[in-house]
Design a protein that fits this description.
7 strands, Nucleotidyltransferase family protein, alpha+beta, NTP_transf_5, two-stranded antiparallel sheet, 5-stranded mixed β-sheet, Beta Polymerase, domain 2, 369 residues
């Protein structure tokens, strides 16, 4: 069996409980599987499935799988601890905020500690931002650094990278930016519980829209891994289950979701991503919140080529490894232009603004460096 088929089966088993068609993996297969799982940042899901299904592995590979999964669990426990600490700190000072991505989505996985984590992303409402920066400096002794993307500050605390967003999603199109910012400021929040601590996050409808936008942004920029697709699939799944159970609080408002995507001109992009969720990640088609048609599958092959070539956040498939210098920026720009060319019509409104405003601006900044 080819390695991508192995990977798909293991993901389907871990997320949806689908039965595996194999009971053993040899050393060569494991090595290829390890490489692709790391590249796609789904190694926790893969090792979890192998271990829980008692798949027969060579002795050394058993140790690798158990050791890697244990490290993933420990890293997630630290992230959860630091997220709870942050939440309690902000609550103590009456800071209005919410948390996105990461641990809040991992919490919805069948085995939350087996999703490979990253940093902690949280958004602070503008009226509390300056006060929060002072609190972080005074109480945590950190100096948050403003990122070039004009979206967030970053700081390191207790071995965890935090991203403090003052803009949740940076659009090139001004109208899109104003509309989305208004949604963030006007829509009610939702909550999830991590280790019995109530964590504020976006409501299910806006959370799905934002998590998809984040995925598509990275896809069209330099590439994105399967972990982000798993995240979007999980959000669709838990919303569908909530709908079946009559749990209106945790349902997606499909009419509102489509309204948001049409207004931003991202509906075609959303349905294109939907084809990957259904065919690659194994999300039941009925759980995707929009009916897919044959036309939606048109760019599926190209998107998958990007995913498997570029990997997590486009870190792979480049000739220039050092992320600085004019050669790196030229290669980076060429990759982006290729992605924009092939995926342009999926979000025309935003892509026109990106190509006419943002890319020339970044090229100029690179030359200045």
């Amino acid at each position: 069996m080819c390695v991508t088929k192995l990977l798909k089966e293991l993901i389907h088993n871990e997320l949806w409980g689908e039965q595996l068609s194999f009971s053993s993996i040899d050393k060569k297969e494991f090595s290829a599987l390890q490489n692709i799982a790391n590249m796609q940042t789904v190694n926790g899901l893969v090792y979890s499935s192998l271990i829980n299904n008692n798949v027969k592995l060579p002795q050394q590979e058993v140790l690798v799988a158990f050791g890697s999964l244990e490290n993933t669990k420990k890293a997630n426990l630290l992230l959860n601890k630091n997220l709870i600490f942050l939440t309690e700190l902000l609550e103590k000072h009456n800071i209005k905020f919410f948390v996105v991505k990461g641990q809040t989505i991992a919490n919805a996985y069948p085995r939350p500690l087996h999703r490979v984590g990253g940093d902690i992303d949280f958004y602070c409402f503008v009226e509390d931002l300056e006060r929060l920066l002072n609190i972080l400096h005074k109480e945590l002794n950190v100096e948050p650094k403003r990122d070039e993307s004009e979206q967030h500050y970053t700081f390191l605390f207790n071995k965890t990278l935090f991203e403090l967003h003052f803009t949740l999603y940076k659009f090139a199109n001004t109208e899109n930016q104003q509309y989305f910012d208004n949604l963030i400021n006007s829509e009610p929040l939702s909550y999830t519980f991590i280790d019995n601590k109530k964590i504020p996050t976006l409501n299910p409808t806006l959370n799905l829209a934002y998590t998809f936008l984040h995925l598509f942004h990275h896809l069209i920029e330099l590439g994105v891994g399967l972990r982000q697709f798993c995240d979007v699939a999980i959000l669709c799944h838990i919303a569908a289950i909530a709908e079946q159970e009559g749990d209106r609080k945790n349902c997606i408002d499909k009419t509102k979701l489509i309204e948001i995507l049409i207004r931003l001109d991202f509906l075609k992009a959303f349905t294109a991503i939907g084809t990957i969720l259904v065919d690659e990640i194994g999300l039941p088609e009925a759980e995707f919140p929009y009916t897919l048609t044959k036309k939606d599958y048109k760019r599926k092959k190209y998107i998958l080529n990007v995913v498997y070539k570029r990997g997590n956040f486009g870190k792979y498939g480049r000739t220039i490894k050092v992320r600085s210098g004019i050669k790196y920026y030229i290669e980076q720009t060429n990759i982006k232009l290729s992605h924009y060319y092939h995926l342009f019509n999926l979000s025309r409104k935003e892509n026109i603004a990106l190509i006419t405003k943002e890319i020339p601006k970044k090229i100029f900044q690179a030359i200045k460096r």
